[in-house]
Amino acid sequence: MGINRKTIAAGAGAAGLLGLGLYFSVPAFADDPAPSPTAHAGQGHPGKGHPLRRARALRGVHGEATVKGKDGFHLATWQRGKITAVSATGVTVRSEDGVSWTWTADGKTHVRKNGAKASLQGLTGGDQVLVAGERSGGTRTARLVRVPQHR
Predict the structure, then answer these.
(1) DSSP labels, the chain
(2) How many CB atoms lie within 10 A of CB 51?
């Protein structure tokens, strides 16, 4: 059974929308980490929510998309997985499918752990994380490193 063009187009479109949503929502999400459940009530279309919530529903483990910003094109990238290494300058994350990426942290990197601000040094190996940021060449720079709250 082969993959048809509609399947490829749908996958490419979904990846592009996901990347665009992450690129524009990560800075806002990091600044307002715990919006109230009713913050968006009555706005937009039913079933539409914050782009990160929609991305979570896709259950993707990593991805990239080229997006156009005010200052040109950027390669937005994200990954969900477990931390395998933490250093003073970044983290290495391994996804369920075996992909391992090293993310550099800088002054613009926001770290959230269990719903609260945290530092890179507060992260530990084995933490389940969502990392989102940009890639330039072979360097991935994290804008958000998020350890979800335990439920």
Answers:
(1) -PPPHHHHHHHHHHHHHHHHHHHHHHHHHHHS-S--TTTTTTSSSTT---HHHHHHHHT--EEEEEEEETTEEEEEEEEEEEEEEEETTEEEEE-TTS-EEEEE--TT-EEEETTEE--GGG--TT-EEEEEEEEETTEEEEEEEEEPPP-
(2) 19
Decide if 52 contacts 40 (C-beta within 8 A): no
CA 27/CA 52 separation, integer angstroms: 12
Q: What is the pTM of this model?
A: 0.63
84-99 residue pLDDT tens:
999 999 999 999 999 9
Q: Which residue has the higher pLDDT, 46 or 105?
A: 105
pLDDT per position as a tens digit, 114-151: 889 999 999 999 999 999 999 999 999 999 999 988 76
**How far is CA 48 from its chain centroid?**
18
Asked if 90 contacts 103 with a C-beta cutoff of 8 angstroms, the reply is: yes
